[in-house]
Amino acid sequence: MFEKIHFIENQHFVLTPHNMIHEIEASPSDNAQQSVIHAKEQLSHKFNLDGRIRILFPDSDTPTDPEHYFYPQIFCLFECGPNYYTKRDNYNSYEIVFTYSGTGYLEYDGKSYTIEPGCGFFIDCRKPHFYKTQGETWEHSVLHFNGSISEKLYAEYASYGDVTFHDALDGNYHSHVENLLNIWDHFQIYKDLQISNTICDIVTYLLLLKAMDEHSDVIKVPETITYLSKYMRHNFSSNITLDFLADFANVSKYHLTREFKKYMGTTPIQYLISVRIMNAKFMLIHTPVPISVIAEESGFSDINNFNRLFLKNVGMTPRDYRKQHDPLK
């Protein structure tokens, strides 16, 4: 599982907050050195990490533009023994846990849950929470993240009243996480943007799981719609037309537009424009690239059309947007 990811690994011992800091400080990894602060934050909490732990830290403790982008704080794979537990609150993070084998137990927001293989939970770590191994072993993954509209999306998820979710062990949740780790662990162009989009994909998938559980007779997103939206996110700089998308889906462009809007809340072309505008916003803030080049690399062949659509969707011109976010202004 996640064989190609370069984790920091601690083998089979009881890991407390104090010796966790010692182990990280002893590591030659720059990422690990940068994350001592993260470990020291845990000293006010109670946990006992009994077993094997593999850790992936972010490139930096200082996130890039957290107001607009999701960012990961830490990812861990645990193979825990019977003494493992975590008990804490007031930790500024959102956490997703997913069980691969064994059983866990969660107490959160006045409820208790048994977390078996294929079951996970999504919680706000600022609230008191306690989870542990139930039985002899618990193999699970942990993703901590924050930023952007995390609070709003979590509130929507929590509104369903049950913080757990269920998925196949090698299902879409696992695939999304694997994609996130591959981007996170390797050099990527626009890495922060790709990571943010992938975390958004993960949370969106969990929301869709909850919605489909509650409205299974109403909501079932067709595979074609899911694939087309993913294709546009990964190929936004290409020459994508409504005719091309309709031909791929083997339906008329009118039928595709109607069905896409039914499930995604917008038309295919407006969805594509939104993805392109998001990329352009990132490049305007984080690169010195000329606006004409940003337009082209974001999928806009005509600079005037780019300026018009940017103004319509963002409320200001690309030039004004760059000036507004210039740290040296």
From TrEMBL:
InterPro entries: AraC-bd (IPR003313), Homeodomain-like_sf (IPR009057), HTH-like (IPR037923), HTH_AraC (IPR018060), HTH_AraC-typ_CS (IPR018062), Tscrpt_reg_AraC-type_HTH (IPR020449)
SMART domains linked to this entry: HTH_ARAC
Keywords, ordered alphabetically: DNA-binding, Transcription, Transcription regulation
GO MF assignments: DNA-binding transcription factor activity; sequence-specific DNA binding
UniProt protein name: HTH-type transcriptional activator RhaS
One Pfam family cited in the UniProt record for this chain: HTH_18
Signal peptide: none
Domain HTH araC/xylS-type: 226-324
Domain of life: Bacteria
